[in-house]
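Tokens help. Consider this.
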Amino acid sequence: MRIQPLADSHGRVATDLRVSLTDRCNLRCTYCMPAEGLDWLPHEEALTDDEVVRLVGIGVEQLGITEVRLTGGEPLLRRGLPGIVARLKQLDPAPELSLTTNGLGLARVATALHEAGLDRVNVSLDTARREDFKRITLRDRWDDVVAGLDAALAAGLEPVKVNAVLQRGINADQAPELLTWCLDRGLRLRFIEQMPLDAQHAWQREAMVTADEILASLGTRFTLTPTGTARGSAPAEEFLIDGGPETVGVIASVTRPFCGDCDRVRLTADGQIVNCLFSRDESDLRTPLRAGADDVELAELWVKAMAAKLPGHGIDDPTFLQPTRPMSAIGG
């Protein structure tokens, strides 16, 4: 079958698909959602397993998607996750398949996920201190996340990456400590600038811990040097730690945007195509899918959605408005 690339009008081609399997989450990270949680999608509005596999299959087999990352909300809350992974890995050609998770419950399913075909995993962990984890997530589950990380390593889901967000007044001074903790355990750490994607719409640029601040903090304990390898479309700038071979990454979506090299597209849990994480527009695939559209028709709708992608996220534009839906509903 001829591949029709997911190209936009600015010369970029999407090959990396982020698939949200649920908008639900079992943590309440203060930079993401309110303590009381959110109004979750009704189950009938979420894509079924068959619908997820069909749409991802169209992306892989007709539109040139080569990497698929399963996200949420918290994707481990999706029932039958190993089965979904196995079916996606059977697509032809088989995509590189990864998972972004908060780690709760990972200890129970890491081996099953690896056996189903999952290649690697990213786990969100903002601190190496149990009490600060509880303060950030409003849940006393730090030990469960650590157990999940250990299980991922034991299962062979490597490299196991840790994603961390720093916040002023909580963990902004903990970058060197967290990096040491990760290095001691064979984990690959990446710091992410806090983005305007919280459900509360309380994000303020001046409150964000910037990439420059993160690097300066790490520099008090480590010598960091650029890897010298072209980043390409990868979101993280990678640095050698004390000459290497270990590295640390910084994703500076706000202060050092990399929109010009973006190769990502997102499919939400309710079947909407989002061509940029910060887009306020979505393109509906679920309705035509359930109305009987064939694969070619769905592929054409997807291509049209990507063609309208803007040149950048526009965070620095005075007219910038956050997406209506938060990160937990869009999928990271």
About this structure: DSSP finds ten helices and 14 strands in the chain. The longest strand covers residues 96-101.
